[in-house]
Design a protein that fits this description.
Layout (H helix, E strand, L loop, with lengths): L5 E4 L3 H12 L4 E5 L10 E4 L1 H11 L3 H8 L27 E4 H8 L5 E3 L3 E7 L2 E6 L4 E5 L2 E3 L6 H6 L6 E2 L2 E11 H12 L4 E6 L2 E10 L3 E11 L22 H8 L8 H4 L2 H4 L3 E5 L2 E2 L4 H9 L2 E3 L2 H4 L8 H18 L4 H27 L10
Parallel strand pairs: 1-2, 1-9, 2-5, 9-17
Antiparallel strand pairs: 3-4, 6-7, 7-8, 10-16, 11-14, 11-15, 12-13, 13-14
InterPro entries: FAD-bd (IPR002938), FAD/NAD-bd_sf (IPR036188)
Protein name: FAD/NAD(P)-binding domain-containing protein
Pfam families: FAD_binding_3
Length: about 375
């Protein structure tokens, strides 16, 4: 009889990395994902050598081929280059880091995986015979002996078992937008200012500003922007820490008034941070959420065959965090622990990874604070 497939909840970066690493070791897995199979992550993320080099071994690819496959500017012969000198607070970013297109990266990693799209978890039910998964399509799967929750910051895997585990919201106002421009505009306005870097940052009027490349084709380019500043207390019209998820697209007029007040911007910031143009962009208000499940709770879950990884276990703020890198590392190292099949090996994985999670969360918060310090050196653009 063939072994029962291991169930992974969530087909994001951490989930697909774990699934692929197990598949490469001959361990069957099934991933259950709430979203459809349609492209959903058309933006860039920064990958560091300490993350992608172990990933290359799993994918059996050389670095040059890998970069050409997933770099945000790969279609025009680029390799996703980042110039740390163009960043306000580089932290982990070095000359070996690069910007990868997240959707292409996930698509590359998930090759060969059995992913059940539109099969998101609704709840878990633990019984003497194992764990039952109740999925969004009204189906259920009984007798699961090993489940990994990789379903992100709002993990239903975590909430089903640890209902008291909440999220902290850091006191920062952050807006993110995406814009598509013609190649002519990109080549004439953006490229000369970016000077080979796919992300650039600066400060202006107390706000942190970022412009990054998501994708470039022969006809157009996709770029993202970030506007972020410290919150100003309960009277701040732009800071809604208790908003609903569905309210992320509700952008207050006060935000556009703040953008209009920006002065002395040089390209590409002057092109991006134009209030009238921004009103035509896809704009979201981000909450800088963090969480951390206690190690004893993780041990308790493990004793019942339920494991958490990535943002499900240690959510990081979007801005200034290393969520993508640590999720990939979680997937690679957890696969090693599962494959070892030595009793408490997976529990020991928690013991080894937990200090790294704590340090990463601490660094993430410190990075966000440093990004917003008015006395931080201004980046030459």
């Amino acid at each position: 009889m063939s072994p029962q497939p291991l169930s992974i909840i969530g087909a994001g970066l951490g989930g697909v990395t774990l699934g692929r690493a197990l598949l490469e070791r001959g361990i069957p897995v099934v991933l259950y994902e709430r979203a459809t199979s349609a492209p959903r992550h058309g933006y860039g993320i920064s990958l560091h050598a300490s993350t992608y080099k172990p990933l290359l071994k799993m994918l059996n690819m050389d670095e040059s081929t890998f970069r050409k496959s997933v770099a945000v500017d790969a279609a025009v012969g680029g390799n996703g280059a980042i110039d740390p000198k163009r960043l306000v607070c580089p932290r982990e970013v070095t000359s070996t880091s690069f910007r990868a297109h997240r959707e292409r990266l996930e698509k590359l990693i998930r090759q060969g995986l059995d992913i059940k799209w539109e099969h998101g978890l609704e709840k878990l039910d633990q019984t003497p015979n194992g764990t039952t998964l109740y999925l969004q399509n009204e189906s259920s799967i009984e007798g699961q002996t090993c489940i990994v929750g990789a379903d992100g910051v709002h993990s239903l895997t975590r909430k089903s078992i640890l209902r008291e585990a909440g999220l902290d919201v850091l006191p920062f106002v952050t807006f993110n937008g995406k814009r598509k421009v013609s190649r002519t505009t990109f080549d004439d306005v953006y490229a000369p200012a970016l000077r080979g870097s796919n992300v650039i940052e600066t400060h202006n009027n107390g706000a942190f500003l970022q412009v990054s490349v998501n994708d470039i084709t022969t006809d157009q380019a996709s770029v993202s922007w970030v506007y972020s500043r410290p919150a100003k207390g309960s009277s701040d019209h732009c800071f809604k820490p208790n908003r609903l998820l569905s309210d992320a697209t509700k952008i207050p007029n006060e935000f556009y008034q703040e953008v209009t007040a920006l002065e002395g911007l040089s390209p590409p910031f002057s092109e991006i941070f134009d209030a009238d143009k921004m009103k035509e962009d896809r704009v979201l208000t981000w909450l800088m959420r963090t969480s951390n499940v206690d190690l004893p709770q993780l041990y308790q879950l493990a004793s019942n065959g339920i494991f958490l990884m990535g943002d499900s276990a240690h959510s990081q703020a979007i801005l200034g965090g290393e969520g993508a890198n640590i999720a990939i590392s979680d997937g690679l190292t957890l696969a090693e622990a599962i494959a070892a099949k030595q009793g408490e090996t997976i529990t020991n994985w928690y013991s080894k990874r937990f200090p790294a999670w704590e340090e990463s969360l601490k660094t993430s918060k410190a990075t966000i604070e440093d990004m917003h310090k008015e006395e931080a050196p201004k980046v030459k653009v």
